């Protein structure tokens, strides 16, 4: 019971610290031994509930909490802005759509709306997006300089999820150059052998990519004509969300 209490105290402290907290800072604030704090943080990080800033070593809560809240229909300001736009997009294109947000150099899917077709692509709500393989991940990576992309890939690796996954840095950098030029990213069976994904960036008031709108299509339906329809809708939705979320970002 004491371990649970300490875990909740630690999480509450992190929720109240937008810039994150270090191990010693948490230990002092909560009067908990440093070794116990490190052990709790390690468990929470492994489960995806906290993130460690690799530059500062400070910990912060992850958007997995937001995803959990969305599952239970709790309303947040983010959901109030994002969800109606996703609903409109599904009504326009008919496909399943998701919203992925960046935090501490990770992307997590925090909202979704199922497509209206009988055959739908499975949602990744609450999951981290593999940066090198998903359309959402590529959209965010394309906003970074190549040297930062290289450092991230060296740190995290480029695991082959399917036989279509890009697993070389040169191949990824070539793909990101295309993404920067065209303004959207695609994933062709790189995470799921039967799925085509398309994502567009959502930017904050400073123009930085903070999130992505993603649509997924069964691969057998991903004709040039169908992709063009989906692309147009996703780009419009991302632009609309960039304007609206600039009020809070």
UniProtKB/TrEMBL annotation:
Transmembrane segments annotated in the record for this chain: none
One Pfam family named in its UniProt record: IclR_C
UniProt domain HTH iclR-type: residue ranges: 1-63
IclR-ED domain: residues covered: 64-247
PROSITE patterns the record matches: HTH_ICLR (PS51077), ICLR_ED (PS51078)
SMART domains: HTH_ICLR (SM00346)
SUPFAM superfamilies (UniProt xref): GAF domain-like (SSF55781), Winged helix' DNA-binding domain (SSF46785)
Keyword Transcription regulation recorded: yes
InterPro entries found in the cross-reference section: GAF-like_dom_sf, HTH_MetabolicPath_Reg, Tscrpt_reg_IclR_C, Tscrpt_reg_IclR_N, WH-like_DNA-bd_sf, WH_DNA-bd_sf
UniProt keyword annotations, A-Z: DNA-binding, Transcription, Transcription regulation
Any one GO BP annotation for this protein: negative regulation of DNA-templated transcription
Gene Ontology terms for molecular function: DNA binding; DNA-binding transcription factor activity
Name of the protein this chain belongs to: IclR family transcriptional regulator, acetate operon repressor
Species whose genome carries this gene: Alicyclobacillus macrosporangiidus
């Amino acid at each position: 019971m004491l371990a649970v209490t300490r875990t909740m105290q630690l999480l509450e402290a992190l929720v109240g610290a937008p810039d994150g907290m270090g191990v010693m800072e948490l230990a002092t604030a909560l009067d908990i031994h440093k070794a116990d704090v490190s052990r709790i943080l390690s468990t929470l990080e492994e489960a995806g509930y906290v993130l460690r800033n690799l530059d500062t070593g400070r910990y912060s809560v992850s958007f997995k909490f937001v995803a959990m809240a969305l599952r239970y229909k709790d309303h947040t300001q983010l959901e109030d802005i994002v969800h109606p736009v996703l609903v409109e997009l599904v009504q326009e294109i008919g496909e399943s759509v998701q919203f992925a947000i960046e935090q501490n150099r990770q992307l997590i899917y925090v909202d979704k709306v199922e497509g209206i077709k009988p055959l739908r692509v499975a949602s990744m709500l609450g999951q981290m997006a593999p940066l090198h393989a998903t359309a959402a991940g590529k959209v965010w990576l394309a906003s970074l300089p190549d040297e930062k992309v290289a450092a991230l890939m060296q740190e995290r690796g480029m695991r082959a999820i399917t036989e279509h996954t890009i697993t070389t840095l040169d191949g990824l950098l070539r793909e990101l150059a295309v993404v920067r030029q065209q303004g959207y990213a695609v994933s062709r069976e790189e995470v799921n052998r039967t799925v085509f994904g398309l994502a567009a960036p959502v930017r904050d008031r400073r123009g930085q990519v903070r999130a992505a709108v993603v649509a997924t299509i069964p691969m057998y339906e991903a004709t040039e004509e169908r992709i063009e329809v989906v692309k147009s809708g996703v780009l419009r939705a991302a632009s609309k969300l960039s304007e609206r979320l600039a009020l809070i970002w």
